[in-house]
Every structure is written in structure tokens, then in C-alpha cells.
Design brief:
Length: 120
């Protein structure tokens, strides 16, 4: 079973930036579509962005234009550059592989996630 470890979260002021990373326990990202998800307190986990194995990207409307998903196959990492952060972006962020590009359901067990808090 592939293990995913998210990192890079923290406390940032509104308008600030953070870069999240997701590391896999083995060479994995190159062959699978990958996604970032988030879960805010009291809310269901939601999809944020995805990156196909071929390299095309897709974003949820509420982050489009502000977040960028990317992959470093050499380092086996998935990244999420988050700019112009808003308090509504406060959540625990998770990465996962995708079962498919229609439902965007996750393929693997969830990691521990990384907390992002946007507050002044």
C-alpha cells in the first residue's frame, strides 16, 4: 500500500501564499492521476485540484486562478502552490490518487493531511 505524507501547511495571513507537498512511499505519481482535497471544520472533505498522468489540470471553481497543482516525478512529490489565500481556505489538506477523472473519488487511504490556517 502506497503511503502519502502531506506537508507545508501553516498559519498565513489573508492574501498570503503557501506551498504544500505530498510525498509517496514509492514511485507512484508518474502513472496515476493525483488530486488535492481539503476538509474544513464541520464540513465534508471536498476536491480542490487534480493532475492527470498526462499532465492536464483541473481546479475547483473556488480555487481556480489562485492555486496551481504540479508534480515532480524525480522527487516523487505532488505540490500545490496556493496564492491569494482567503480565510475560507482554512482546512486540512490531503493528497490522493484518483480512481477516475469523472467522480474524482480517492483511490488510497487518507494520510494525516496538513493544516492550513488563513487568519489575520
Amino acid at each position: 500500500q502506497v503511503q502519502l505524507v502531506e506537508s507545508g501547511g501553516g498559519l498565513v495571513q489573508p492574501g498570503g501564499s503557501l506551498r504544500l507537498s505530498c510525498a509517496a512511499s514509492r514511485r507512484f505519481f508518474r502513472d496515476y492521476g493525483m488530486g488535492w482535497y481539503r476538509q474544513a471544520p464541520g464540513k465534508q472533505r471536498e476536491w480542490v485540484a487534480s493532475l492527470s498522468a498526462e499532465g492536464w489540470t483541473n481546479y475547483a471553481p473556488f480555487v481556480k486562478g489562485r492555486f496551481t497543482i504540479s508534480r515532480d516525478n524525480a522527487k516523487n512529490t505532488l505540490n500545490l502552490q496556493m496564492n491569494s489565500l482567503k480565510p475560507d481556505d482554512t482546512a486540512v489538506y490531503y493528497c490522493n490518487a484518483l480512481q477516475d477523472y469523472i467522480t474524482l473519488r480517492p483511490l488510497l487511504s487518507w494520510g494525516q493531511g496538513t493544516q492550513v490556517t488563513v487568519s489575520s
